[in-house]
Amino acid sequence: MSISPNPPTPKIQIPVLYEDENCLVFNKPSGLLVIPTDKNEDRTLVNIVNYDGVGAGSKLALYPAHRLDRDTTGAILFAKGKENQEKLMQFFKDKQVNKTYIAFVHGHLKEPRGKIRIPIKDYHQRKFQSHLPAQSALTHYEVEDYYKDFTCVKVMPITGRTNQIRIHFAKIGHPLVGEDKYAFRRDFALRFRRTALHALRLEWPEMTGNRTIKVQSPLAVDMVDFLERQR
Fold it and tell me: How far, in Å, CA of 13 to CA of 71, rounded?
């Protein structure tokens, strides 16, 4: 996970939801990649927090411990320095991090809670190694509320495959509102300017103690406004 040598422009401040000596949780806005791709974008979250945010002038660079899609808003965990990044990423690999999302999905889910267990090929397999078998993927969900044409659902991905939530709900016939990669927007009456997915909460073990750190991000303003318009 590299940091581009070019500072981002224009400047933007990313809210901090939590900070200690080892890490921070930022409240990511929509429209930002977390790290540069092979197109070498400069305006990414990792560049912004290091050049214009709390990491500017710090002795330790800030590194993401996981990723969110460009469209996805909400809580994202960053490490202070490479050593802490490796520790936090190991927490994710060991399934010691609990992630909770809020999603709006088309239609009405029949069951108030359930599990989606559908194998997924990760990004690199899809792009470079299409012959390899898909990897197991498991998503838990609980319905928060039903609206006329969609369901507000709390989502807990147990595995961490690329685009797992988007793929799983599309596979069961309830793609996310605003989805344009795994479903056709024209097939649905509802419109939203992005994929309606928000990283609501993160829980992970404290590095220097026995407690669990829990951080929650308020639902993104555009998703709140969308709910108000549907009532």
Answer: 17
Q: What is the pTM of this model?
A: 0.90
- How far apart are alpha carbons 35 and 46 in whole angstroms? 6
The residues annotated with a catalytic role in the active site are 69
For 224, the token pair is: 């709140």
| 62, β-bridge pairs | 80
pLDDT at residue 133, rounded to an integer: 83
| 1 contacts 50 by C-beta, under 8 angstroms | no
Residue pair 164/99 in contact (Cβ under 8 Å)? The answer is no
Give SS3 for 154.
Answer: strand
Length of the chain counted residue by residue: 231
- What single DSSP character describes residue 66? S
Beta strand 73-80 pairing with 98-106: unpaired
Q: By C-alpha distance, which of 97, 106, 138, 98 is closest to 120? A: 138
Q: Which helix (H) or strand (E) holds 115?
A: strand 113-117
Cβ partners under 8 Å of residue 162, min gap 6: 120, 122, 123
Distance CA 200, CA 194 (A): 17
User: Model confidence over 16-36: pLDDT tens digits?
Assistant: 999 999 999 999 999 999 988
By the 8 A CB rule, do 177 and 227 touch?
no
116 vs 229: which has the higher pLDDT: 116
Give the dihedral sign, CA 93/96/102/103.
positive
Angle at Cα 25 formed by Cα 20 and Cα 30, nearest 5°?
160
